[in-house]
Amino acid sequence: MYHFNQGTGNQAQPSSSESPQSGSNGNAFSAFGISHSNQNNIITTENSGSGSAAAIVNRNTINDSSSEETPHDRTALPITLSLTGNNNNNNNNPNLNSVNAATNHILNVPRSTLGAAAAAADLALSNNNNTGNDPNGNTKNVRHYVYSANQPNADSLLHLDLQENTILPPKLTNKELRKLKDKNGLFSLRLTPFIDNVSTTNQGLYFDPIVRTAGPGSQLVIGRYTERVREAISKLPENYHPVVFKSKVISRTHGCFKVDSQGNWYIKDVKSSSGTFLNHQRLSPASTLSKDIPLHDGDVLQLGMDFRGGTEEIYRCVKMRVEINKSWKRKANAFNKEALNKIKELQKLTNGGIDEEDCSICLSKIKPCQAIFISPCSHSWHFHCVRRLVMSSYPQFVCPNCRAACDLEATIESSDSEDALSESDDEVQEDHQIQQSQLKQETDLVNKNNSGVSEVNTENENANHTGQFNIFYTSPHNNNNINENNHTTTSQLDPNVLNSLGVQLDDPKDDIDMEH
Amino acid sequence: MSRLIKEYKTINAQDDILLFPETADNLNNWTAMITGPPNTPYEGHDFKLYISIPDAYPNSPPMVKFHREAMPHVNVNYETGEICLDILKGEWSPVYNLLYTVQSIERLLSEPNADSPLNLELGILMREGDKTAYDSLVRYYLQRQK
């Protein structure tokens, strides 16, 4: 139930979308929600990659290439669809209305090489603007448009409605612009859940990071995920999807992102009922069209407000962090590369010289600036790849490579002493001394933090080479207070842990003294 | 998905095991042919394996089946072709791959395990330690298919 909008007839062919010719048949037009196909053939191109694409194309334009595999990033652009699908919502016969809408479009579309899509966008937006004054208020026909990289007249397509005092960044040179684009010449937007642990108890809706790419002049609809939307987008590559969330506080057509030819992104609220907040400021009152507000990297965007306290997932607002134009892709600097090399060297030492370059889960290379998880058995993977495994059984972890089981909550001291026990006696003593100094530092820290409080008095005389140490507790009760006050040192100073440490040391020369 | 493409390349580069996607454009369904190991009743027979890859792969194991009513083996359900093998269940590790999985199943042919029988008839014979009867029953089944 979605259509590619074919700007010119030839763009219907995925394989030739990058080389537009003058349209032989200008009305290869489509709008979302139309199921009439009298003149059109539906072609579904399967894609063994991560998406498949279907297109309604004019019969005249079909050729063999249409049925070939469509590489993911060469899906025919532009794409257009509407989340509500028609101009009159709450209608039992959406198809009919869409057809009407489409007919209107076709009548108004100039059959020029500029393309029906551009004109359609024009029309849809102007419709939208007009209906801003519509007393019924139920005609939110904001369409989702994704244009290709070389869309002409991109800025005029957007109908930007900026605030008077809006200051846009200076015009960029082509070279600077290219840096902002991805390899297909598209601008990009990434939305990640914004988790604010400090100020609020509710976390907003959780969602997987959203990445969208779009050429200049595109308009990405923000809305609610509905069954209808699911059908509409199921065969589109994900990076061209509208931005939809499974929350009822999001209006079906809530707002939209726009991107201009300079790679500036904008947010607009299109009469959502529960509002859009940019950096905690509401863009417009309920059911009112807002201006186009420029987005900046790192902005916090909130869609809707929690309903019923946000206890139910479906009534949670969406809070997200905005990143634009590849800003989330960090370039590795010398330090990053050096750090990774050091880790690799370290692993060679522990593996006996075997160079394990690949992540054995995804089978791809571990590169600088990727999060790595190194297990106690010294195997490593991308954190991304091993995360499920770590989380599913935490704190127990069974290494997928060597099946060594380990306890990820093991305190640092106790695991040291286990290592020590397996080594020779001399090393054991050295290790004890290291432990002592560590312990001293930690307890010193505690003493500093609790100046005036002297529940813990660690005497750590290293005069004796055998390494004695004494720990005095004035009372177990006071010690508990310390634990509460110092979360960072809780595990180290827990009497039980120390006790077990003493047990594990298992060295008659060590003298652990606990006084109450 | 990219992981399957990588595996596909590795699999194509080797010629020990016959393992290929069912259709060229879909890496979610694979077929493998394994040959009966020598000195087993399976010697001289070829067996077809159907492998389907779940979405969660490689965090979840691939689903592997023999052709139904084609594999008399104590750890294989004769009617459905279902295989009882630890690495296809709880012992799966994302480090394993399709090639390893198929090799393990091939090894299962020469090393049947009576502790988790899916084929009761054969399981009983095996538990009683009657290897001759076991082998000949397997041969009988295989013969009957021809």
Which features does this protein show?
heterodimer, A: 516 residues, alpha+beta, 6-stranded antiparallel β-sheet, 5-stranded mixed β-sheet, 12 helices, 22 strands, disordered N terminus, B: 146 residues, Ubiquitin Conjugating Enzyme, 4-stranded antiparallel β-sheet, 4 helices, 4 strands, 33% helix, 18% strand, globular, UBC (chain B), ATP binding (chain B)
Tell me about the biggest sheet of chain B? Answer: 4 strands, antiparallel
Largest interface by Cβ-Cβ < 8 Å: A-B, 17 and 15 residues
Q: How many strands of chain A?
A: 22
What are the segments of chain B in which pLDDT stays under 50 over at least 5 consecutive residues?
none
Cα distance spanning the termini of chain B: 39 Å
Radius of gyration of chain B: 16 Å
Number of domains of chain B: 1
Tell me the CATH architecture of chain B: Roll
Judged by helices, strands and strand pairing, the structural class of chain B is alpha+beta
Strand order of the largest sheet of chain B: 1-2-3-4
Question: Can you tell me the residue ranges of chain A where pLDDT is under 50 for at least 5 consecutive residues?
Answer: 1-73, 86-139, 423-428, 446-493, 500-516
Per the principal axes of the C-alpha atoms, what is the gross shape of chain A? globular
Q: How much is the average pLDDT of chain A?
A: 66
The CATH class assignment of chain B is Alpha Beta
| Count of helix runs of chain A | 12
Keywords (chain A): Cell cycle, Cell division, Cytoplasm, Isopeptide bond, Metal-binding, Mitosis, Transferase, Ubl conjugation, Ubl conjugation pathway, Zinc, Zinc-finger
Catalytic activity (chain A): S-ubiquitinyl-[E2 ubiquitin-conjugating enzyme]-L-cysteine + [acceptor protein]-L-lysine = [E2 ubiquitin-conjugating enzyme]-L-cysteine + N(6)-ubiquitinyl-[acceptor protein]-L-lysine
Subcellular location (chain A): Cytoplasm
GO biological process, one term (chain A): establishment of mitotic spindle orientation
